[in-house]
Specification:
about 170 residues, mainly beta, Thrombin, subunit H, Lipocalin, four-stranded antiparallel beta sheet
Length: about 170
Amino acid sequence: MKQEELFPVIQNGKYGFINRNGKIKIRPQFNLAFPFSEGLARVQVGPEWGYIDSKGRIVIEPQFEEAGPFSEGLAEVMLDEKYGYIHKSGRMIIQPRFDEADHFSEGLALVKMKDRWGYIDKKGKIVIKPQFDNGFPFSEGLAVVEMDGKLGYINKKGEYVWGPAK
């Protein structure tokens, strides 16, 4: 049976979730809420972020300064002003050590270290060293990166296939 789609809604200053028919399915009780991703929704309770399931049960306790959506089984979270990645179980898979982080796409995630962006794999190993002024997630084997105000495309080896260094 397919999971019912739920959508964030705000009522009296609190966020909850409704279904396609507008029926409240999760009572408005959160400071902020984002759409479900891979079966979990990130919600803010007080100043901290955690995750709920489609029944509204907290499945990962609010404990993070920031939290991203689950993508490819992992979500970026911030603890002590550094980003790492958790599994849907709530277990920290990649310890927080990045200045900024983005979601996983095609097995790689964009991360920032010391003002430079690079890419890591799902084990946290740096596979494309932080060297770019900016970057975007991979799509169809390529990612857009920026260096000195110029855009280019790189492959998963970090090689330019089009752009400034090509």
